[in-house]
Amino acid sequence: MRIAFGLTALIVPLALGGCGALGLNGTMVPNTSTSTAPGPVGDAGWVVTVTGSATPKPSPSYGTGSPSPALPPVSFLPVDPECATNWAVDPVLIPMRITPGTGSLTVTWPHRYDSTYRITAVPQRLVSGSQPAPTWRNVAAGSGCTVTTKITGLKSGDPYVVRLDTSDSGFMRDGTRHPYSGESAVVYPA
Predict the structure, then answer these.
(1) Quick one: CATH architecture of 97-126+133-187?
(2) Whole-number Cα distances in Å, 185 to 53, 121, 162
(3) What is the mean pLDDT of each run of 10 residues along the chain (190 residues)?
């Protein structure tokens, strides 16, 4: 019991007082003076034996680069200007470019499917009674980037809407045909 009491009497001051309980009152820092004499009494007796200077701040060193090897010249295959046109193709509507002519409309659109297209110009003048059925005309797709056809026999200055459709646009997973058709705004032959 005496040993436990004596041990407790030694540990408790150390835990509560830290180094100050042993007479080390926080002066445990090296003596930074250039003298070689011991520090004050009660000090740990640290002595500076070598004077020095602070290490200089490191500065980055940059390597010297070498030029990249010359790249071989790049050439591209010639592109048909019609193929390079940005048509902003809607997945459902066929974009069309329509040029009015005398009693005619020249219509150009991007070739999308190996299909036969059908096209018509629907008159927009009001008529009494039932509207006449549009007359559709078939147009072969051809092999270029675009398809162009001319609709003739139109009245100059009358309003028309051009409608375009393809019957061979392929099928979706559920078996229905891909919708692929187009309709213009109102256009007027010259």
Answers:
(1) Sandwich (2.60)
(2) 85, 11, 8
(3) 55 57 52 49 59 71 69 62 70 85 94 82 91 90 87 96 83 75 92
